[in-house]
Amino acid sequence: MRLLLDTHVLIWFVEGRQELSTSSRRVLEDSAVDPGLMISAITFWEVAMLCARGRISVARPVQEWRRAILDTAGFEEIAVAGDVAVEAVQLPGELHADPADRILAATARLRGAHLATRDKPLIAYGRAGHLAVVKV
Predict the structure, then answer these.
(1) Overall pTM surpassing 0.85 (yes/no)
(2) How many CB atoms within 10 Å of residue 75?
(3) Pseudo-torsion of CA 99, 101, 104, 105, nearest 10°?
């Protein structure tokens, strides 16, 4: 199963945070082997913004943190391409206006991935049939 990681899931996973259960961590580890974990470029933007505002911190400067993740086997960065940008605006159903969440939803839909998240609005969007979601 292809997984696209929501921002909080990426942070919890690579930072070894306790918010992830053992079973959720196992799902991510298994997906990192085959076929891989996808990370939207918007996720790195969001991490950088949150760090700059002092709302979160990661183990090293964000640019180094990003590079270390992408140098690890099993991770793939997905660009925010034009098709994703258009899909984010034209998503079916109801999803809140947060641009990062809309880009994540559009990326998962267009790339045939499940979105790994604990975000309640995104989980509800999945329950409505618009997005494949794995609740972690």
Answers:
(1) yes
(2) 19
(3) -110
